[in-house]
Every structure is written in C-alpha cells, then in structure tokens.
Amino acid sequence: MKMKERICYLLLCLPCFLIRAHDFVLTNIRTGEETTFSDALDEKKAGGAIDQGEMRRTERFNKVLRTERNKIKSNNRFGSSSLSNANQAKAADNDDDNEDRYIIKFTDDVSFQRHARRLKSNGAMSTPIMTLEEEHIQVMSLSSPEEIAEWEIQDGVKYVEKDHKVFLRQNTPGIETIPYGISQVKALDVSDDRISNRKVCIIDSGYDITHPDLQNDFVSGSGVNPWDEDECGHGTHVAGTIAAVAGNGGILGAVRSGNMNLHIVRTFTGIECSWTWGSSLIAAMYECIVAGSNIINLSLGYKEDTEYEKEAFDNIFNNRNVLLIAAAGNDGTDEYEYPAAYSSVLSVAAVSRSKSRASFSQMNDMVDIAAPGVDILSTYSGGAYSYQSGTSMSVPHVVGVAALIWSHFPQLSASEIWSALEVSAEDLGSVGRDDLYGHGLVDALEAYNYLLAQEDQQPTISPSTSMMPTSCGNNYCDILGSETCSSCPKDCLFPRDCNFIGERGEFFFHARHIWSIVQIASPDRCSLL
Asked: Is 392 a catalytic residue?
C-alpha cells in the first residue's frame, strides 16, 4: 500500500477506533477492571498501529486523569481507584443525594445528539440522570477519575463539571441557634426542669405539628380544625419562641425541654390569617381554660373597647387565676389596642436587639413590660424558619419567661407572677415606668431571683395545736390530721394555694378568725396559725 493510501486509511479508521476504545474503557471500569484508555493505546502502540494524533490524545487523557485524581484526592472522596461496585449501586439507588453527579456540556447540538444516541445504545448503565437538551447537557453519574477524564477528552465535549446542591434560603439555621431574643430575656438562665406543671394556651393561626423543632408530645388543640396545621405561619412562629425544642439543629425557645404543656386554639385561618370575631376570641379563651391553661398568649389586637370583652378578660384573670399576655400594638402611636389595654391583661411592647423601642410599638399608659420584637427568628409553617417583627413576636418571650418562673413557684397566683415580672424587669428609657417600655425589659433570671428571695423571707411559723380543728366541714383546716384542701375545700375560704383539682387556694383560710398569712410547705396542705 502506498504511503498516501495508508494515511487515508488511518484517518478513516481513527474515529471508529476511538469510539471502540471509549466503549472498551467504560465497560472495563464498570466491571471493576483497571484497564484504561491509556492501556488500550499502549497495546495498540506495541502492535505498531498508532500515530502521533493518538499519542497526543493519550497524553491529554493522562494529563486530565492526573488532574481529576488530584482533585478527588484533595476532596478525600475516591482515593486512587474507582468506587466499589457496592458503592456505585448505592449511589445509583439514591440519585437525590448522589455525590457523583457531573455536568457534561457538549459544544453543539450535533455532538449532543450523537453522544445521546450512543448512551442510549449502551443500555441502562449509561442512562443519564437527567438531560437538558436546550443547554446541550447530560447529567451523569461518574464514579471514578478515569470516567471523568474519558468524558473530558471526547470530541464534542466542551467541559465536565461537578454538579452541586442548591438550598432554599429560608433562614434555616445550619447549626442549633439561640435567637437573640431568648438570650436577651435570659430565658436559658432559668431551668425548665419543672415546666410540666404549667400549661400555655396559644390562640392563633394553628401549629405546624410536623415541624422538626416543635414538640408533638404534651400538645392538645381545639378551635378550627385541623388545629395542628398553620396556613400563614403566625401561630407556629409564636410557638417556636415559647417552646422550640433543643437538640434538633434548629433554634431554642424559652422553654426547650419539650415538656411544656401546650394547648392550641386555632382561630385565624387562611393564607393571610387576617381576622376573627371578638366573640370567637372569648370562646377561644374559655377553651383554654377548659384545657387547664395557666397562661394565654394573645399575639393579636383590635381597636374596639367593648364591655362584654372587658368583663370576660377581668373574670378570667381575677376569678380563674389565668395570666393573660397580649400585644401592645403595631401602629407606633399612643392609641390603645385591645385586649392589651384592659387592666386585667399584661401589655407587651417591642424592643430591638439594641434594647431600643421598636418604631412600630405602641406607647401609652397601659404598656406594662417590653420584650424583643424586631427580626425575631423562629419556626414557620412547612418545617421552615422565618424572621418576623411585631409586638406579636414580643408576647411569646414574656409568655415563655412567665411559664418558666411560675413553674418554680406554682403556689403563687397569676397576679403575683405579673407583679414579679414588672418588679424584676430591666429598666429602659426614663427611670421607672414609662409609656414606651412599661416597667422595662422582661428578665427571667431576675424574676426568678426576686421570687426566690421573697420565698426565703417568709417566716416559718409553727401552728398551735390548741387551735387545730379535727374534722372536715367545720370551717377549719386540720394540717396535723389527714385533711387537705382536696378533701375539704369548704374549709378554705379563698382557694388559691391549696392544689385541688387544678386550682390553687389563697393563703387565707376561714376559721373562727383569719389567723395569718403563711407559706405553705405542701401545695396540697392548708396551714393555719
């Protein structure tokens, strides 16, 4: 054969050889053999059937292979050889989390279609994970540096790039996060190991019970069904500030043990959760009471001052011993917002991270206390997290703190817990109470220490045995005998500190005289002087 004819023959046969070499390499890689494109060319070279073009192609392959191996080595992913068959199978079974996804970009549509046909003819093992035809892209699982290098040297391949994961930017904490508001009110400085003796009721838009950062134990609900869903996210955000559970990689609430007793009354519905009726609100509060709640979170408001609502709130606070905590309002004016402006409701203003009054927070003579309410990170519908601002966000900080300290002093009344929160608050603004911050920023640790000091100051008085009654129903309470407020409620004039069927008794007891105010050693025992 003449030299000119030999050259033409080699040029005609070269594409066929390259395609066969490629298929040979892929086949051997998948079967676990170490034979590569370079090996095949070395064999051909030994037989004298290789030209300079093929040599350059071999050199390019080896160069790319070295580069890919160095990349993989630095990433500590593959080592020096291909993945085992077991690992390849595992990767194929879990494409959603496949770390071996690569983008193969072709130079033009002709090259793309040619390789697509070849991949299809190679069977299922060569099936792309996905195809982006308009971009001339095949997404492939490439499990070894040899496979990556082989694709990079193919005619018509523009480049090969590692695919990567894209995340929703939904303010999801990468590691467990303590929102600044929880730190600011010092909630984590007070133990929540006794929190199971308190129950908080949240009247709002519902509760995303599937959220990984919210408890699904010790949670009940009523109102609009299903109460354990939340279309607009407001109620779920409130719940997270009160009781987001520790150890889930999300955020921490004021109470973080997951042992808080919660009752959810879903009153607001729809995507906007814009409004409900005043009568529905009152009905919701009584649902909280029926469920045995001690504190009601009212992250809501309205302008109308009605007699029936005022009477209802007064009755629930004064006669049912339930602490009512509501949002001062978000208009940034001195106008009253209800129910926060009722005297039987603790009104909460909002402050920022710097402890300055939030521009939207109401400022009037009914503001009682302040709490963080600007850019508050908390749980949100759909397992998400969100930053929200408003006095609605301030209320759950106070609710969480109130539940914490009340759990340590369950013998106290709602009124006494209210007083402790105000007396111990960090003074902000003008000295003493003012219309912007009320008594100041709620402080869990100071409130706890204040009540602890008050408890230590109570005198220990030994009862006189000569004054002790002997039987139930004679208007005496026999602490030396077997009588308790549970068994003899009529012997206590104003039930508060006696723990009978969920209610507390007063320190005052009716005998022939009102003997004294004493600290009761056991919440179920009545003490007289």
From this structure: yes
